[in-house]
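Late entry, pyridoxal-5'-phosphate complex.
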Amino acid sequence: MVLSHGVSGSDESVHSTFASRYVRTSLPRFRMLEQSIPKEAAYQIINDELMLDGNPRLNLASFVTTWMEPECDKLIQASVNKNYVDMDEYPVTTELQNRCVNMIAHLFNAPLGESETAVGVGTVGSSEAIMLAGLAFKRRWQNKMRAAGKPCDKPNIVTGANVQVCWEKFARYFEVELKEVKLSDGYYIMDPSKAVDLVDENTICVAAILGSTLNGEFEDVKLLNDLLTEKNARTGWDTPIHVDAASGGFIAPFLYPELEWDFRLPLVKSINVSGHKYGLVYAGIGWCIWRSKEDLPDELIFHINYLGADQPTFTLNFSKGSSQVIAQYYQLIRLGFEGYKNIMENCQENAMVLKEGLEKTGRFNIVSKDNGVPLVAFSLKDSSRHNEFEISDFLRRFGWIVPAYTMPPDAQHVTVLRVVIREDFSRTLAERLVLDIEKVMHELDGLPARVANGGEDAAAAAASASEREMTKQRELNIKFRDDKGTQQASNTAFEGLVRRYFDTFEHRLRRGKSSKSRRPLHLQPSKANSAKSVQAPHTGCFEQTSHFTLRKSGQPSEDFDQVLGDSNGCWASYPKVYTHTQMDYAKGFDTRSTTGKEQGFASFGELKASEVCNASSSKSTKKQGFAA
Ligand SMILES: *Cc1c(COP(=O)(O)O)cnc(C)c1O
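Prediction complete; structure with ligand written out below:
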């Protein structure tokens, strides 16, 4: 769109904001506007579109801070124009970062003299901190192997399968093999003895998590330290430990001061923590602390002098804002040990209120532990009729954002809902959430079962959905996405349906090519021409089948823009839920509508949408940042 010249000046002053031409035409999505628009209009347009984001305070998926004191907000605002990297120009900001490093190192019991400075760095978050820590381990290991005249081209790192995605990134970006200890039913963290079994001469470190992303549970770092010490003595290696304390680093020192997980354990050489999680700062700050100078190889540190004096730096990027460092310093001095302890205790109590409320309903198993990061992870005792994804969806209507996800291997058949308790999640809200979950359960009880299974007993069917079958479904799913159209050899009822579905899909798409108008996709092959739209159970809104086609085809996100651009009410009101991933498609479209009326889509229910969804998205769910 190009705004035309020559509109009289009175245009802007005469029209009310929402009648001005700027809000009456749609903005281009791919190219810049040719002309400028008034600042008020730009503000209004952006502000209004952002209203459709979820409310961060109700986003219970995230560990990341969503509230700070107004005084700190002021400091943040006042420093948004300061580039952190200009250390010589902003020496005080640099000094504040160094003080934060010292305070956090002491909190983690680094072996430091009273006025000795600690070794550490402020980062954008734990992910950057973990890249840096991993690089330090890799380099130290390489140096050691080279000195011993041994090959150093096959480094590996040992973690639990429950690690946050940043470890997978580290492994891939920096070419280190990731050896994951598998989880098992009812045990969702890394088993230290299995981890030590995986350690070999090429292991650069074992990474333990203090506060598993999935259920908040602390891994047993002390036991890991003891077992590894023993193995090191036996083999002559000196495999070290890193603790990923992204969420637990600001919990354990206050709630469990006796718990030994930090530099009190000799093999722990570095620890990361997210300042923006329980460090209580807005998104954009993390910390990496090393035990001593020896643990951070010198050759990774760069010295720059073109900003003034010599400055050592060890970060992945160069420029960044200063506000988060200043905000962290504010929290550390404003709250002190006492303040942090009070806040963490309060979070813990609210977690217990929520946990007990959920237990009282009699419908859930709690899979988080009382000692750990204050969160409640829970799954349905009976998910044969309705599953956790539906609860998550239904809660959106009350404004709550509660993620549902499947556990990593070998516990991928377990689905959980997770509520992270942050500082700003008050008792009232905890109690309200319990009430709303009860309402959702009641509502779901009144609806037909999600999985249509041809008269079979639903519970029995769910129970018999063995793991092998799920793997098969996942493979099928992938296959059909990769090379749809190719005939598949197998002939289960499930596969037959999928095949029929895709055949029809391809067929319609080809036929529709010539037509300018939207290509109707008929979702139910046997009822071709009957389904022009499908109903989203959350909103009761109808979605054009062409939108569904776009998402189903797994095309990149421009399609989603296009869908949004059609300003279909149901899309607009649920932008987060309705991205066109396989998972969302399976979540959002169901065998029934909220009115209980069967839709044209119904037969697709035989695909066991929930399982297709679980199987195909378990990996991506993990990667899509529920962890954050
Ligand atoms: C959140 C989290 C991360 C990633 O941290 P960011 O600060 O978001 O980069 C890494 N590990 C664990 C255990 C986490 O919970």
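Residues 63, 125-127, 164, 166, 209, 211, 213, 244, 246-247, 274, 286, 627-628 surround pyridoxal-5'-phosphate (CB under 6 Å). Will revisit in the morning.
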